[in-house]
Design a protein that fits this description.
With about 425 residues, the protein is mainly beta. Helices cover about 5% and strands about 60% of the residues. The strands form 4 sheets. Strands 1-2-3-4-5-6-9-10-11-12-13-14-19-20 form a 14-stranded antiparallel beta sheet. The longest helix has 7 residues.
């Protein structure tokens, strides 16, 4: 009679390693830092292994009025895993039942068929811990470069480009099994292969002109620029069955009951922006912002939106007549008012303004029968959504007045009324 400790069969010890290497230095024209990281996590007695490799580089330098730099990071992961199965079901298995049975080598890869006379009918969970296997490979890239030139002491121009990319490939294999006498999820009469490939990328480019100028008691600063963003995402899935293939393999070997799906999505934004901030003697302040945004989420006639905002401030505590009366208890008192328009396209799908067409599961019938029996039917596309070319930016107007006050040993109070 077996004396199985299902707790020990379910859990495993692991051996984790991590290695880091970094090199940094610099000179008159360039400072740099390079590094690499490698980690591995092995679990003893089961096909679980996680590996991660990461390489990065940062450089930056200055020559005269020109500053330049860049960054790159490359990451690669290679993980092998198995199903976590059910701990609760595992612990409910009787200790007098074994884990393995050599007579089941052809149907269960040697795992014991539980539920034979114990009344529980719970599949042997250790089969899934070892045989429900998966592999995931992924890579991730981040790059960024910039250049900045000081046109004057008060005027700078900076251009930046960044790119990110992610790609993941997942594969799962489960062999056929008969693990419980009464079925109940304990039977699979085929070898199953599932794959999933997904990824995304992002391009971001911006050109920014910034200025900061003081003339006597007048202070003027601001920024003007153009920002361009583009996103791409995709997803592909496959599931197939086979009676002959008994391990991981190419999709062509799993041609029974095939299921295939895939999506791709693109999104782009283009923005023109500006901000100007004026201050006189640190007492009177004015700020104006303006954005013009274009989004591919909307039809061509509605892609542009224009969104200004304004604010004014008065630091009352800097007025001589206020300082004289409140210098012993008031540190700062600033009155402010704002008016602006806040926008968002987050609640709109990438193609919501279009009518998407679906061709899966729909047919046209030719003939007198109403239930297609004896008729000729052909695949028939039909609209999956209703087009709305009037969709545009969600806009919220925000207006408020308030004050900031420091008093009684710099205790800060805020109040804003909308």
């Amino acid at each position: 009679m077996a004396e199985t400790d299902w707790w020990d069969e379910y859990f495993f010890s692991n051996f984790y390693q991590k290695y880091d290497l970094a090199i940094s230095g610099g000179g008159e024209l360039l400072n740099y830092r390079f590094g690499a990281t490698y980690t591995v996590d092995d679990r003893n007695g089961v096909a679980r292994n996680n590996q991660n490799q990461n390489v990065y580089s940062n450089v930056q330098g200055t020559r005269g009025r020109f500053t330049y730099g860049g960054r790159i990071q490359l990451s690669y992961t290679n993980n092998h895993g198995t199903s976590m199965a059910s701990l609760q079901n595992t612990l409910q298995l009787p200790p007098n039942e074994p884990v393995y049975d050599e007579s089941n080598i052809d149907i269960n890869r040697g795992y014991y068929q539980t539920g034979m006379g114990d009344g529980l009918d719970i599949p042997n969970q250790i089969f899934f811990v070892h045989e429900d296997r998966n592999k995931t490979k992924s890579h991730f890239v981040i790059t960024s470069v910039f250049g900045e030139v000081k046109l004057f002491d008060w005027l700078k121009f900076k251009a930046t480009y960044s790119y990110t990319h992610y790609n993941s490939q997942y594969t799962r294999f489960v062999p056929r099994f008969t693990l419980a006498s009464g079925g109940g999820g304990g039977t699979q009469a085929y070898n199953l292969l599932e794959t999933r490939n997904n990824g995304n990328s992002r391009h971001l480019t911006d050109w920014l002109l910034t200025f900061d100028k003081n003339i006597g008691l007048h202070s003027l600063s601001g920024v003007a620029g153009i920002v361009s963003e583009k996103y791409e995402t995709f997803n592909r899935t496959f599931a197939g069955r086979s009676q002959e293939q008994t391990d991981f393999g190419v999709k062509n070997l799993f041609q029974d009951d095939i299921s295939v799906s895939g999506t791709r999505s693109d999104l782009a934004y283009y923005s023109i922006l500006g901000r100007i901030m004026y201050s006189y003697a640190g007492k009177y302040m004015f700020t104006a912002n303006f954005r013009a945004d274009e989004s591919s989420k909307f039809a061509k006639d509605n892609r542009w939106g224009y969104f200004p905002s304004f604010s004014v401030g008065w630091r009352v505590s800097e007025e001589p007549w206020v300082k004289e009366a409140t210098s012993d208890w008031l540190g700062n008192l600033k009155l402010r008012a704002t008016l602006g328009w806040i926008v968002s396209a987050g609640g709109v799908g990438n193609y919501a303004y279009q009518s998407n067409v679906n061709i899966v599961g729909y047919t046209y019938s030719f003939g007198p029968q109403t239930n297609n029996s004896g008729d000729s039917s052909v695949p028939g596309p039909r609209p999956a959504s209703i087009a709305n070319r009037d969709l545009s930016w969600e806009t919220t107007r925000d207006m408020g007045v308030g004050f900031d006050m420091d008093m009684l040993s710099n205790r800060l109070f805020h109040l804003r009324l909308l």
